[in-house]
Amino acid sequence: MAGFPTVRLRRLRMKAPLRRMVRETALGPDDFIYPLFVMPGKGQAEEIPSMPGQFRFTVDRLPAEVEEVARLGIPAVILFGIPEAKDEVASGAYAPDGIVQQAVRAIKRAVPEMVVVADVCLCEYMSHGHCGVVRGGVVDNDATLDLLARTAVSLAEAGADMVAPSDMMDGRVAAIRRALDAQGFPLVPILSYAAKYASAFYGPFRDAACSAPAFGDRRSHQMDPANRREAMREIALDLEEGADAVMVKPALAYLDVLREARRRFDVPLAAYNVSGEYAMVKAAAARGWLDERAIVLEILTAIKRAGADWILTYHAKDACRWLVEGGC
């Protein structure tokens, strides 16, 4: 077999145009879903201390932000709400005038072509901060399903293009699919957080969404970080129940899970480049320890190379600007 010096792989690396021509993984705006936080009030954009460059927006400030997202070529946003009040049945999650329902309507009026994904979870709306109904100090899986289904239907009624259950209750995809179909929304797709791990990387998000649990943790329903085979079972079950697309969350520490999912399942596959991953890059870049532009594009390329079709990332706007400038 031919080898060195006949074979020199550096030949195709010597110039930037050649490197682009042989690049195996191409990153672009269509790969991104941009997360947005919406809060009560008027005329405010409140920066999130643990996530520099990210904001909680009031509904009236959201359309301008989404218009900028659209100008950058990003096709979709995902919404997380901070309600005015919380209770033990998460009534703000499925109220017709809930904070995310208001946000969906405002976005669809201002930027109708934007794909609006609505997160379906109850933790932001529960007084105790857990993802479901709590009975005897434990999250009651089956009692939570009806509330999740009601939330998904309410969001579809508001105009959401896609619903994304992130609670990790068993059976929630089937419950949501049945409810959507029964209420006249058979064409609203479900993006399931199928392999969502009990991760320490969620800290800044819980600060942003005011959703930290008041007691205990979420290890009874979110996945053990040590398990990969179990993630494949979670994905397979959610697809059987009617999920149209599935997600691995977090992304960076779980690229092996993402790659295995890509190998096994021929469906749209998302990965969430989560708040802790974002915050670490921002903190290191602020101290001059990392080149932010270079590291962000490398991270996002790695997530796509591992198999993601869609990347949920707080870096999306900056990444689009850098890609236009030829930063990858």
Give the H and E element order.
HEEEHEHHEEEHEHEHHEHEHHEH
Number of helices: 12
Share of residues in helices: 25-40%
Task: State the major sheet.
Answer: 10 strands, mixed
Mean pLDDT over all positions: 94
Structural class: alpha/beta
| E-strand count | 12
Low-confidence stretches: none
Shape: globular
**Quaternary status of these chains?**
single chain
* CATH class term: Alpha Beta
In CATH terms, what is the fold-level topology? TIM Barrel
Terminal-residue CA separation: 34 Å
The CATH architecture would be: Alpha-Beta Barrel
**CATH H level: which superfamily?**
Aldolase class I
| Beta-strand residue percentage | 15-25%
Can you describe this structure in just a few lines?
This protein is 39% helix and 17% strand. It has helices at 16-21, 62-71, 91-94, 99-110, 141-158, 172-182, 203-209, 229-241, 255-264, 275-286, 292-306, 316-324; strands at residues 32-39, 45-47, 55-58, 76-81, 115-120, 134-135, 138-139, 162-165, 191-196, 245-249, 269-273, 310-313.
Keywords:
328 residues; alpha/beta; TIM Barrel; two-stranded antiparallel ribbon; 12 helices; 12 strands
Give the arrangement of secondary structure elements.
Layout: H1 16-21, E1 32-39, E2 45-47, E3 55-58, H2 62-71, E4 76-81, H3 91-94, H4 99-110, E5 115-120, E6 134-135, E7 138-139, H5 141-158, E8 162-165, H6 172-182, E9 191-196, H7 203-209, H8 229-241, E10 245-249, H9 255-264, E11 269-273, H10 275-286, H11 292-306, E12 310-313, H12 316-324
Parallel strand pairs: 1-3, 1-4, 1-12, 4-5, 5-8, 9-10, 10-11, 11-12
Antiparallel strand pairs: 2-3, 6-7
